[in-house]
Amino acid sequence: MQEMIARDDQVDEYDGNIPLTLFSMVEIPLVVHLLDINPTFTMLEAGCGTGRMTTRFAALVRHLISIDFSSKSLQQNEIKLQAAGIQNVDLIQADICHIPLKSELFDRAVSCQVLEHVPTHVLRERAVSEVARTVRPGNTVVVSGYQHSKWTNDKSGEHEGGIPYYRFTESEFRELLETSLSVMSISGILVYLYVAQCIRSTK
Ligand SMILES: C[S@@+](CC[C@H](N)C(=O)[O-])C[C@H]1O[C@@H](n2cnc3c(N)ncnc32)[C@H](O)[C@@H]1O
After folding, report:
1. To test the ligand 1 pocket, which listed residue (1, 50, 69) has its Cβ within 8 A of the most ligand atoms?
2. Is 3 in the pocket of ligand 1 (CB under 6 A)?
3. Ligand 1 mean position to 77 CA, how many Å?
4. How far is residue 59 CA from its own chain's centroid?
5. Whose CA is closest to atom 22 on ligand 1?
6. What is the bridge-based pairing of β-strands 182-189 and 163-166?
7. What's the CATH code of the domain at 119?
8. Structurally, how many domains does the chain consist of?
């Protein structure tokens, strides 16, 4: 609840975050490359926020469902989609730990910079399991999360407004993802983020 309120309050700050905008120039092409998207695909974006990536993804797939628990972020996202004339996206207010969608719906799923804000290890495992559940077996899931390194001071803490964060070591991130997915690769970007390419194992 605390994070939902803070995210609603911080919509404009998020979009005005210049370091994040610059970081996106490296992050988004890498995420898109790892997703290996085909224009016939359907995709889930879990924790879409204000749409830093949503319009980019939408242009590459047939249908995108983007979820977030912050209604103000979704409203902001909707404004951007309308301005870009994009019509193949459904935005849904939902918790990544309880995704209100059928299993094995999607060809791809992506979740960027969300897991580190899910407040406990048990809930993070739950979130990974929920994202994995929505993807058809054998298909790709790309997930990113804060990186802990010698350059980062705190392992965990709170951003402004009480938004919790947790910085993963590479082995923690791998272990978390492997509770529901097979990890193909983990790339570090600029000591800030890990981006993992995973596969939902075939049954
Ligand atoms: C750092 S932002 C990232 C947004 C977007 N993926 C991006 O990369 O710009 C984290 C987002 O995750 C959402 N979020 C955090 N915990 C969530 C949860 N349990 N369920 C749904 N969304 C959540 C927040 O509302 C916020 O929009």
Report:
1. 69
2. yes
3. 12
4. 17
5. 68
6. unpaired
7. 3.40.50.150
8. 1
